[in-house]
Each structure stands twice: as structure tokens, then as C-alpha cells.
């Protein structure tokens, strides 16, 4: 299930049942949807009712695993890795009919449009997903003592910005009517909004910090992953993911190289070349839009050094005193 989109602001814990969307601060410059601010974060206006509904009604199971991320921070890869790892007994990575060979990773996780009955019928352990900031996640997930686990992946803000901008341009092109060109959306426009925190689920650095702080308080409940570290050591991070989800690789599986097989199945090259990901659509964009480069540092091909320095300074100032820093290792952060 996708618990909808999405700090440290205390109002994030408010009851959202009586939320009056039209009364919230409005941002109209961030396509493809207008944004509204709630609890210190900006949300796509059409999805705010789903945010409120998920917070009010969703009941987590102790065995649930929630995959969380700021948009365009490694979400597709994390979903694929989690699916292949958690369900490897029923679907070995080398299986020719593996779900990931037949369906886009996002289609292998229930969407926010799934009804309560659909979610209730899912067998345990359920694999769920969200872009919500930590303070807006349903209390049945975050309450101390709840068995549900959270896996969060973060990414350098500059790469998240560029990936989000390029993805948005593809969505605008897909939505263009009668071969009319999509409305221009420049990197400069995206940059100014992003620096001000005005993007879906932004500010990005506050989104990341909320989950990082939760992982420090409850490391047994929240696993905090860094996209760049996953790229450097994908097999090691898959082992960490498996152990955290309660399905560590056995001695026999290690000897057979199953962790390596999971990584290969979920690699960018493998996924992007599958027929299902060359065609079809997902959430108003072509499936192929979810598979671009999958690298770190591509921001340098789209942003000037001056832009990068400005964003780095904004993030550094915002995080000062928190103990968290992008680029730091998990041990030193």
C-alpha cells in the first residue's frame, strides 16, 4: 500500500480528520499539482484527503514493513530490493516468472487507491510504501511498541532535486494534450522552489531528518539507509535490509550467492531493460521514466557550482545542531 505522499513541526501530530484544505497555505508554481502546506511540509493538493484518511484509518500490523522516502531518492530501487528480498522463498531471484519481471516495482506494492478491504485481505507480512514525512505517518505505525518496521532511504539533496525536476518534465510531457508542447519548467524554477522547501513533501532535509532522528531513537524499528552507500555496497546493504526485515540470508543462501542474485535482479540495467518497464504507464507517467541513471553526483551535469554551493549552505544551516549531515557515513552521522 502507498500511504500517500507527504518536522518536525508539532502540528504534524494533529488530528487531520477535520482538515480544511482550502485554508492551508497555497503554492501554485510547482507542477504538476498545486501544493498546500500542513504541519511544516508541502503536499500535492489532490492527495491531502488521502493523507488525512491514511492517518485516521490505517491500522498497522506488527509484521508490516513500511518503505519510506522523499520522492526521487531511490524509491523504485528500494521497493525492488525489498520485494525480491522479503519474498525470495516464494519467488527466487532467478525465477523467470518473478513478479519484478512481469510488473513495475511500483505495481508490486499496493497503491494509495487500494480500499480498506483490499489492504485487510493482504497476507502478512505486508510490504507498504510512503512518501509521508515521519510526523504525518499514521500513529499505528510510529507509536512506541508497535511492531511495524520502517526502512527509509535518503539521498543527497542536489541529486534528489535534479531527479525530481527531470521526472516532473516527463510527467508534464506525458500529460500534454493533442501534441501540444508541455509547459516549460526550467531547472532554475525548480531550484528556487526546492531551496525554499516548496516541493512535494518538502523541505527535503527536514523530511530526511525526521526519519534519521527516529532511527536514532529506535534503531530496532527504523532502518536508515543512504542511497550513495547502497550504490557503493549493494550486497552489504541487501544483507542489512534482510536482517532488519527478519529474513536474514541463511548460510546456505550465502553460499549460493542469493544476495548477489537479488542485487542483479534489481540492478538499474536489468530493470530498465525488462519489457514491462520499457512500456506501460504508472501514476500518469511512462514506466521508463522511473529508470534513468541511478547514480550519485549527476547533479553536476545540470546545476552550476554556484547553485550547488547555495543549496549546500541552506541545508547546512537548516541542519546545524541536529547531528545529521548529508555525505556522512552511517556511523559518524
Features:
3-stranded antiparallel sheet; 15 helices; disordered N terminus; Rossmann fold; 4-stranded parallel sheet; 333 residues; P-loop_NTPase; Sulfotransferase_dom
Task: Describe the protein in words.
This protein has 15 helices and 7 strands. By secondary structure, it is α/β, with parallel strands linked by helices. The chain has a single domain (10-319), classed as 3-Layer(aba) Sandwich (Rossmann fold). Strands 5-4-6-7 form a 4-stranded parallel beta sheet, sandwiched between helices. The chain has a 3-stranded antiparallel beta sheet with strand order 1-2-3, with no helix packed on it. α10 crosses α12. The model is unreliable at 1-14 (pLDDT under 50). InterPro entries: P-loop_NTPase, Sulfotransferase_dom. Belongs to the sulfotransferase 1 family. Keywords: Transferase.
Amino acid at each position: 500500500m502507498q500511504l500517500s505522499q507527504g518536522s518536525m513541526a508539532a502540528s504534524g501530530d494533529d488530528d487531520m480528520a477535520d482538515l480544511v484544505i482550502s485554508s492551508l497555505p497555497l503554492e501554485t508554481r510547482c507542477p504538476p499539482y498545486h501544493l498546500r502546506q500542513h504541519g511544516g511540509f508541502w503536499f500535492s493538493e489532490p492527495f491531502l484527503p488521502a493523507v488525512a484518511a491514511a492517518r485516521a484509518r490505517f491500522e498497522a500490523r506488527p509484521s508490516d514493513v513500511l518503505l519510506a522516502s522523499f520522492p526521487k531518492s531511490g524509491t523504485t530501487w528500494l521497493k525492488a530490493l525489498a520485494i525480491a528480498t522479503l519474498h525470495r522463498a516464494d519467488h527466487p531471484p532467478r525465477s523467470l516468472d518473478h513478479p519484478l519481471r512481469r510488473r513495475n516495482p511500483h505495481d508490486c506494492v499496493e497503491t494509495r487507491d487500494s480500499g480498506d478491504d483490499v489492504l485487510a485481505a493482504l497476507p502478512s507480512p505486508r510490504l507498504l510504501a510512503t512518501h509521508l514525512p515521519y510526523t504525518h505517518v499514521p500513529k499505528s505505525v510510529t507509536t512506541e511498541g508497535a511492531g511495524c518496521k520502517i526502512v527509509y532511504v535518503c539521498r543527497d539533496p542536489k541529486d534528489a532535486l535534479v531527479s525530481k525536476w527531470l521526472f516532473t518534465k516527463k510527467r508534464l510531457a506525458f500529460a500534454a494534450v493533442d501534441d501540444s508542447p508541455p509547459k516549460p519548467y526550467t531547472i532554475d524554477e525548480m531550484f528556487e522552489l526546492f531551496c525554499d522547501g516548496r516541493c512535494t513533501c518538502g523541505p527535503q532535509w527536514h523530511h530526511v531528518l525526521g526519519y534519521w532522528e527516529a532511527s536514532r531513537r529506535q534503531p530496532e524499528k527504523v532502518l536508515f539507509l543512504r542511497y550513495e552507500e547502497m550504490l557503493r555496497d549493494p550486497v552489504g546493504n541487501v544483507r542489512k535490509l534482510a536482517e532488519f526485515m527478519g529474513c536474514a540470508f541463511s548460510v546456505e543462501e550465502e553460499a549460493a550467492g542469493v544476495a548477489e542474485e537479488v542485487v542483479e535482479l534489481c540492478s538499474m540495467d536489468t530493470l530498465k531493460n525488462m519489457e514491462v518497464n520499457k512500456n506501460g504507464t504508472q501514476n500518469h507517467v511512462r514506466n521508463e521514466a522511473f529508470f534513468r541513471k541511478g547514480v550519485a553526483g549527476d547533479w553536476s551535469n545540470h546545476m552550476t557550482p554556484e547553485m550547488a554551493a547555495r543549496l549546500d549552505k541552506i541545508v547546512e544551516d537548516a541542519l546545524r545542531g541536529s547531528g545529521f549531515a548529508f555525505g556522512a557515513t552511517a556511523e559518524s552521522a
